[in-house]
Amino acid sequence: MGTPARSVACLIVVLPVGVRRWLDRRDGRVHTLTLSLWEAPSLLPLVYGAAYAAAASLEQLSIVMEGEGDYPVHLDSLLRLLPNLTKLAVSAARIVVGTDLCNASSLRKLALHADIFEGMWLSDGRRGEHDLFHDGHEPPSPGAGPRVSSLPPSLMKLSFGCQLNEVSPPINYNAGLPYGLDLASTLQGLAVEGRRLEDKDIEILARLSALRELHLTRCRFGSLHHISALTGLKLLYLSGSHLQSLPAAEWEGALAPLRQLVFLSISECDLYYLPPAVAAATCLEGLHVEGNCIAALPPGPYLAHLKELALGWQSLFASHGTLAQHAARLTHLYMAGSHSAARASTGPAPVTAAGREDLVDATLDSISALPELRCFTHVLDEREASGLESRSWLPLCVALCLLRLGRRCPGLQLDAIRGDNYGWSIEDLGVCQVANL
After folding, report:
1. What is d(CA 22, CA 321) in angstroms, rounded to the nearest whole number?
2. Environment class of residue 437 by beta-carbon count within 10 Å: exposed (0-12), middle (13-18) or buried (19+)?
């Protein structure tokens, strides 16, 4: 009691005046504020009122606009009210970016998720009438420079994509990146979701020399070759992107030069085999391959230094011997959804009770043989039920394995989580140059 309140989360169900008074009474002691609003014109002023009331001390602000309305959140207005803000996350149907972002000198993290963005140019300066990034004006003339603001010079992490809903909206794969992104020389983390990236966009990403963490989630692109220029990259997420048609030479050209890469996620990429370039990697410490159609993991150098692995249950049942033999440093195993992997062909299924018992026993033997394994996490996925209907042996084996795992491996920490929000960040690696980023 008596110590300043560092964090306050509010589910707003009261009048704006009441919330304003509530914040005023805290007298500058609110440093973190989360506003979750059901979109309505009468509640929108609450966002600005609450921000103004806490402006003196507020460092982190998160705004989630629920519902189906199309009421805009004006980003530049918020940033003018909050000079000390270091982290801002906004999820809304419409975000007006404005022209004053460069004046947000304290901003380190910016996360924008919306169906429509206004005030951002596409990376090639084109106007996109139906694109997420447009402001309805003609593109700037050559040499005139952008008429919209550049990103804040202090920005270290940027995330943008579709509005975050409980059920993900359809991805239209709109084209392009924000104008001037390649000028963000201090950017260490970038997350892009649901975009159609052409070669020139990948070239722009390749010019972000300070980048250490890159997410290209649920994106479409024809080539990854230019990513090879990001030689300082440590974390790469390609989750949910359709990469099944990417040739082996393309994988080799993109990944081979990334000698500092320690984490790779190729989850939900419709892959039927582990790309040879991944299997040949010698520096990987974390690898996520769950949600694919990979029947079994092959042996290879990639397993030698692996500390964290996420894969589907079917892949585990087919690859447990390989892990026991080659993944001696594995400390954390994530067992994730098999709704996609259930389509993979793995030969005859153990349809008899004895066959299931033998498979589970062999798998548990291999898990217990991993000398450094400390954590085992089962990832719950609502999509598993529809994907496993035709493979009734698999959920039975999963249930048997989970039921007996604690007894067979008493020192193992068992856990269950829901969703796909797990992985590594540059904060985990301690490579950020700014404290508390």
Report:
1. 59
2. middle
Q: Report the distance separating Cα 69 and Cα 418, nearest Å.
A: 28
Single-letter amino acid, residue 64? V
Six-digit token pair at 44? 């929108």
Give yes or no for a contact between 236 and 262, defined as CB atoms under 8 angstroms apart. no
Residue pointed to by tokens 């904060």: 427
Query: 78 phi and psi, to 5 degrees?
Result: -65, -45
Per residue of the chain (437 residues), give pLDDT as tens: 344 444 444 443 444 555 556 666 665 567 787 877 765 555 556 566 666 666 667 788 888 877 666 677 788 777 877 778 899 998 887 887 765 577 788 889 999 888 777 765 444 333 333 333 333 334 444 333 333 446 777 889 999 886 544 434 444 455 567 666 777 778 899 998 887 788 888 888 888 889 999 999 988 887 888 889 999 999 999 999 888 888 999 999 999 999 999 999 999 999 999 999 999 999 999 999 998 989 899 999 999 999 999 999 989 999 999 999 999 999 999 998 644 444 444 445 666 888 889 999 999 999 999 999 999 999 987 655 444 444 457 788 888 999 999 999 999 999 998 877 789 998 888 643 333 33
pTM reported for the whole predicted model: 0.82
Task: Judge whether 29 and 57 are in contact, CB under 8 Å.
Answer: yes
> Are 50 and 58 in contact, with CB atoms under 8 Å apart?
no
Per DSSP, the chain holds a count of helices (H) and strands (E) of 11, 19
The structure tokens listed for 410 are 């008493």
